[in-house]
Amino acid sequence: MSSDDDEFQIAVVGGGPAGLTAALYGTRLGHDTVLIDRGGGRAAMMADTHNVIGVTEETSGNEFLRTGREQVESYGGTFERGSVTDIERTDDDRFRLSTTDGEITAERVVLATGFSDERPDPPLPRTGKGLHYCLHCDAYMFVDEPVYVMGHGEAAAHVAMILLNVTDDVDLLTRGAEPTWSDETAVQLEAHPVEIVHEEVTGVENDPDTGWLEALEFADGTRREYRGGFPMYGSDYNTGLAESLGCDLTDDGTIDVDDHGRTSEDGVYAVGDVTPGHNQVPVAMGQGAKAGIAIHKELREFPRSTESIARDGPVELDEVPAVSPELLATAIAHEGHAGGPRTDDVADHEETDHEETDDPPTNTGTPAADDD
Ligand SMILES: Cc1cc2nc3c(=O)[nH]c(=O)nc-3n(C[C@H](O)[C@H](O)[C@H](O)COP(=O)(O)OP(=O)(O)OC[C@H]3O[C@@H](n4cnc5c(N)ncnc54)[C@H](O)[C@@H]3O)c2cc1C
């Protein structure tokens, strides 16, 4: 537990759905947690939110993220707007993070830095209104509609064929580039009703009222109507910090992790789009939750092992609960607390050194159960 302003148990880099969830779990499980986020990111690009149970479709990404930040802060988590420029392991096996605002020290680091989609050259439809970067989020919009896929590699060819699951009108636009898909994929493409268009795109026609794509114009003077489509030019993973810490990457360029988000480097976790797996909000949140719980298991102080009891003796009443005074006060004042917000108790905890009282609160904030 730490009390200094720049010392935390958990530092989360990246405030998308993955990082916010890791920070929420860390904070609500009683650990001083800071989340540093420079803004932007893929969730911030969501015009509306699909596939997230409990979140209405018309919720924008920025609204979703704002609510998440408010949740983390309401439990006593610290949010900092800024960039983490460097992370190094200290001699005492903690981590020193350099940010645009200064330095932070933490016992565990969660990298939730996401990736950027490679954007094709213009002219392009408007993002979210004919240009879409998330197949599993937006394919539903195009059921029985004319769609395009832009690209000339394996992923583009496969996504074009995948879209036949929702519509019978799919064009694959190579935009004049030489295809790089394999011979096997070429055989597959030939056997599916996907039209391959090699001409470069020269113009975009949008509905003047809604801004939605109506048609694309091509170098040979043709015009093709589309409702929307997906550019497939790859992902630029934000792995610089992971690499400088020595974390292994996969062949795809993502950070290699186990099922709990542990990287190859002790104490360093990674979650969300920067790791392998489906790039979806619920998946990112699940990974953030798993990492938050895994870190809690590493950091929590009780139950003390038999070796430690033999060495240090039994746990004294004044050693519990193992939550910092700040998080303790926040928990007692929080709506979710069993006793409800009790401003008198909070004031007592703020004014009184807890170790000197005979009557500590019974709610430790740390679950007794080992796994859940
Ligand atoms: C246009 C679009 C629409 C989408 N729609 C949906 C949808 O409807 N439903 C759905 O389930 N999924 C959707 N997705 C996918 C979803 O957005 C991602 O899977 C999800 O946001 C991944 O969360 P994340 O936290 O891993 O990454 P991100 O949301 O990308 O967040 C990463 C954060 O880390 C920050 N960061 C990176 N490096 C640093 C650093 N060094 N210091 C500080 N901060 C840093 C970034 O600025 C960013 O804020 C959509 C994606 C796009 C692009």
Structural description of this entry:
The protein is α/β, with parallel strands linked by helices and 372 residues long. It has three domains: 7-117 and 235-299, 3-Layer(bba) Sandwich (FAD/NAD(P)-binding domain); 135-231, FAD/NAD(P)-binding domain; 314-356, no CATH class. It is built from ten helices and 16 strands. The chain has helices at 17-28, 61-74, 135-138, 154-162, 183-190, 240-245, 281-299, 306-312, 325-333, 343-351; strands spanning 7-13, 33-37, 78-81, 84-89, 95-99, 102-111, 115-117, 147-150, 170-173, 194-197, 201-206, 213-218, 223-225, 228-231, 235-237, 268-270. The strands form four sheets. Strands 1, 2, 3, 4, 5, 6 and 16 form a seven-stranded mixed β-sheet that branches. A four-stranded parallel β-sheet has the order 10-9-8-14, covered by helices on one side. A three-stranded antiparallel β-sheet has the order 11-12-13, with no helix packed on it. The two termini are 21 Å apart. Mean pLDDT is 92; it is low at 349-369. The chain binds flavin-adenine dinucleotide. Residues 13-19, 36-43, 45-46, 49-52, 83-84, 112-114, 117, 133-134, 137, 238, 241, 272-273, 279-282, 284 line the site of flavin-adenine dinucleotide (FAD).
